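From the pipeline queue, job 12 of 40. The input is one protein chain; the requested action is below.

Action: predict structure.
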Amino acid sequence: MNDQTQTSSPITTLNGVAYMTDAKGRMTPVDAIKPIDLLRDETVINIADRVKALNGLMAQKKEVMFALIYDFLELSASAYDTKYGGKKGNVSLFSFDGKYKVQISVSDTIVFDERLQIAKTLIHECIGDWSEGSDTKIMTLVNDAFQVDKEGKVSTYRVLGLRRHNFDDPKWLDAMQAISDAMQVTSSKEYIRVYERDEQDKYQQISLDFSKV
């Protein structure tokens, strides 16, 4: 990794005077900036550039690792005169001694269209038709499932969790079908995770998160 870093924010020279631009876009003579502010600027820029360089290196290494894994999967499949079936499944690979595990997982981003509101209406009608008793608890469960966050999105986990309840009611079944029909996968993302087996024979993820290193 190239360890060269920018030492400070850009300096512009006008009529022989050096200026730096502040956060509001104002040009300030360098001579008028306090030494501690210049040192803070230098420190922040130095760290930011190092992190950006490390981020770029990780992106390159990630691409190489995916290529290594899929090249191996294709080679493994070729032993059976076939091809590997794409990138939609989760895969785990182990070292010969079992010390290391490399795992590829696929995460789908799921959104719901307007039919989700149709499902909510059907569920409310369904509960309204039932006798009293557990209805209050069920209604609370349903309302929690359809509650939106600050970005106006519902929890996919909670909504799909409603399908675990196998109520024998036509409206409920229609609502569950509406939920299924409302689901749309907008994107998929692949992740590589590497684990090392510890002394208790448990696999611990090798973290690439600064806060966990």
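Job complete. The radius of gyration is 28 Å.
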